[in-house]
Specification:
By secondary structure, the protein is of the alpha+beta class. It has 4 helices and 4 strands. α2 packs across α3 and α2 crosses α4.
């Protein structure tokens, strides 16, 4: 959970973490631009038996071209796995 300053009331307010937002993220959102892989592609790999990031990477190729999306892709994978 993150804290953010509420400028109107000058209070700290909590909001949902990015991890939780991944669970409700648009299935068409691109995670890996090099391979045009989406959240839906990653979710499908998990639903087809991938149990962790390495298995999703093997099944989809996510983060295997330039690697720039690796951190975000791992976050998406972990969020989907933990959100089930």
């Amino acid at each position: 959970m993150y804290k953010k300053q509420d400028k109107l009331n000058n209070k700290d307010v909590s909001f949902v973490s990015r991890k939780a937002m991944v669970i409700i993220m648009d299935e068409n959102e691109t995670v890996c631009p090099c391979l045009n892989l989406t959240v839906g592609d990653i979710r499908a790999a998990i639903e087809n038996g991938a149990k962790d990031f390495a298995a999703v990477e093997e099944a989809t190729g996510v983060a295997s071209v330039c690697g720039a999306c690796r951190d975000y892709a791992e976050e998406v994978v972990n969020s989907i796995i933990n959100g089930k």
